[in-house]
Amino acid sequence: MGILEVKNVNKRFGGLQALGDVNLSVAENTVHAIIGPNGAGKSTLLNCLVGKLIPDTGSVMFAGQSVLGRKPYEINQMGISRVFQTPEIFGDLSVMENMMIPLLAKRDGSFRMHAIESLEDERELRAEAEKMLDEVNMLDKQDMHSASMSRGDKRRLEMAMCLIQRPKLLLLDEPTAGMARADTNNTIDLLKEIKEKRDITMCIIEHDMHVVFSLADRITVLAQGTPLVEDTPENIKGHPKVKEAYLGEAA
Ligand SMILES: Nc1ncnc2c1ncn2[C@@H]1O[C@H](COP(=O)(O)OP(=O)(O)OP(=O)(O)O)[C@@H](O)[C@H]1O
Ligand SMILES: [Mg+2]
Asked: Which domains does the chain have, with CATH numbers?
């Protein structure tokens, strides 16, 4: 049994069947990629994994517990964090202040700095943030305003903001979308490092096949809301059903 188990998930938006009978099992400490053409239902599926969307039918279990209907901070407390397509950082805050937000959010969903309870509390939060920044080689940037950083550094900061919650499952929706090749390669290196050093399972949605084949242990190909094939990267390469799924789209 996988740490993440999706069973018979269906989701309709009006007349559109965005997800049709999705089954997915993700083994602990692996990287599972979900690929598929535009509109295949990838983001919809990810939204179901973080409790943001409730499927019409089916179940989503993480470590034996249902994620459905839970608030974002409850999802964080279960050990799930998510990286969005565009880095979710606060440009007018410093790197250090950004790092404190997920620590506060994990407590009760509060994003406010005044949720810091005391000087002692602030010292502890700072110490934890410094430790994490050190782990991702960003300690020297702690006082920088995040708006002035490169796209790659913003992504690195956002990743650190997820990792500081010590997730068991990291969900990534196109983490390299719109990036220059150099930033994409940096992100691949960072994700490889995370994979090697941590006890973590990752589910990644990605259009860039270079990213997928560099990282994934298993790949699910989604087309029109339904998994077409699931296999290892070696077997997915050149698979006729994958070509069929991407027909009409430059993949
Ligand atoms: N909230 C919504 N209301 C109505 N339709 C929606 C909604 N969210 C998604 N859809 C539709 O559901 C289908 C799947 O969308 P989804 O965003 O999951 O695709 P995707 O695979 O992530 O695509 P992309 O690669 O472009 O990000 C699309 O046809 C989309 O237009
Ligand atoms: Mg999407």
From this structure: 4-247 (3.40.50.300)
